[in-house]
Amino acid sequence: MTCELISVGTELLLGNILNTNAQYISQKLADLGVNCYLQTTVGDNPDRLEEAVRRALARADVVILTGGLGPTCDDLTKETVSAALGKKLVLDEDSLAHIRRRFAKMGREMTPNNVKQAEFPEGCAILPNPHGTAPGCIIEQDGKAAILLPGPPNEMEPMFDASAMPYLEKRSGTKLYSRMVRIFGKGESSVEYELRDLMDGTNPTVAPYALLGEVKLRVTARCRSEREGEKLVAPVIAEIRRRLGAVVYSDEGRELHEVCAELLLGHKKTLAVAESCTGGMLASRLVSVPGSSRWFLEGCVTYANDAKARRLGVSTDTLASCGAVSGQTALEMARGIRRTSGADVGLAITGIAGPDGGTPEKPVGLVYIALASGEVEQVTELRFTGGRERIRNSACLNALDMLRRSF
Prior knowledge:
Elements: E1 2-8, H1 10-13, H2 20-32, E2 35-42, H3 46-59, E3 62-66, H4 77-85, E4 89-91, H5 93-106, E5 119-121, E6 125-127, E7 136-141, E8 144-149, H6 153-172, E9 175-183, H7 188-194, H8 196-199, E10 205-210, E11 215-223, H9 226-244, E12 248-250, H10 256-266, E13 271-275, H11 281-287, E14 296-301, H12 305-312, H13 316-321, H14 327-341, E15 345-351, E16 366-373, E17 377-383, H15 388-405
Parallel strand pairs: 1-2, 1-3, 3-8, 13-14, 13-15
Antiparallel strand pairs: 4-5, 6-7, 7-8, 9-11, 9-12, 10-11, 15-16, 16-17
Helix pairs in contact: 2-6, 3-4, 10-15
């Protein structure tokens, strides 16, 4: 099965908006094994859009259009596709009622031009939009199909996943089963080098995604059932774990702070954190996990030396001789937050996030992380590059990884 994408909107041609919709859909189609040979971006011009639709339908089995489903006069996708297929637009009362309810819920008045969002090509399948006022639709004719989706990614992506994807799976005769492997401590190029032969496979496929400070691998099988998909995916994931070892921290898509939460809960341990350069970022990630009050006791941001001494009991001699950014200070911070909070584990970060404050001896990006518990104490020195937020994020990820590896 072949598919073409048509992205509608003059703002895309002008570069005012990044076309993430095409990227998102293309990745989904590739995983499904659907061939996508052409993508087109068309402005809000009915003649050029109709020409693009006719050409795409002549070449492909399915054409997916994003954008142009709004209420304004330049939103012409449904009207243009209907004209290309020789269909009339008809009002769908259920969709109109949904739009009215959404406006009422937002406390806004619905203007008459919003009614056009409830008009659809006759005989189409309407795709609900719980995140906006623009439903989508699927139009079938002469063995071909056009799928119309809204432009805003926060509306398009859930509609594609909930409605368009099942349709494409049924039409192609396959479905997808995926698991996400998350990796910390090894770069994308190194991961790709070690897993190159697995990434060359066709079913399952292994696709890498570089994140800020870590790597994801999506292992996806084309299958007829979830059970068959798991049977195909499981040995590949086992091989990834065998080759990469402890840098793999989840094969179910969980993030580092979620994995740490599970470990703390499972081992019946409590945690408290002390932060300097990360300024509460570490604590914020930890408490984003539902139920964190069962294992997270407190977080303390001690930026000034006086705060480190007064709140955490860091020795003034240590601060004077080693400095606030040092392994000894980090360890005393971890010990101090553990002692004063009564937690089983104390975790601490101190460093220079920049852009100022660095010296030749202690440059911007120098970070120390320490962990203290009844069984173990450890400190690590790290040197990061990049801007302030990148350094803070990297420090948090490394602190979480230290915590994970301590169990």
